[in-house]
Amino acid sequence: MASKRKPEAERRKRERQHLRLRPQIDALYDELHQQYPQTFFRDFEKIHPLKIGIDHDLRERVTAPKRVLHYCMKRYTRQPAYLRALIAQKPRLDLAGQAVGTVSDEVRESAQERLSQRWERRRPKAYRSRQVGEECVTPQASPTPPEEARAASGAAKASAVAAPAPAKRARKTTPKKPAQKQRSEG
What percent of the chain has pLDDT over 90? Predict the structure, then answer.
């Protein structure tokens, strides 16, 4: 029988569950990177898509609960670097690090859509597409792509380190008036 809870209540329940399991998820995430360094990469440039059904292989080898493994895999496969690996159609890897399959065009298009939606959510509202009648109008000025933005911010940080910090202005101090003594009537 389907749950009669409202979608918002279901979402809050999942969020609470995820927060409760967070330490276990983090521990399993680190464990997977240590046990299977040829499959799970921390370097974004080396990330490859995982074999379809790799979660079944992991369930046999990892003692973590099924829900924790689910959240851990979700964390790994939803990161932008993984989506870029799907778009680039890199070969899928099994737990031994061997290429076992390829990425289909359908999966590639889905990854492209998810990545663009993620980018759209992160863009300032002023740059997002707007509905005007039937047509969609986008402002003329477009933000820089994420790679260029990161490079620009890195260059800005480097120049900020090299340039001396501006001197602080001295604050004006005004002399305080002496406190007046109250007269007591007597």
Answer: 57
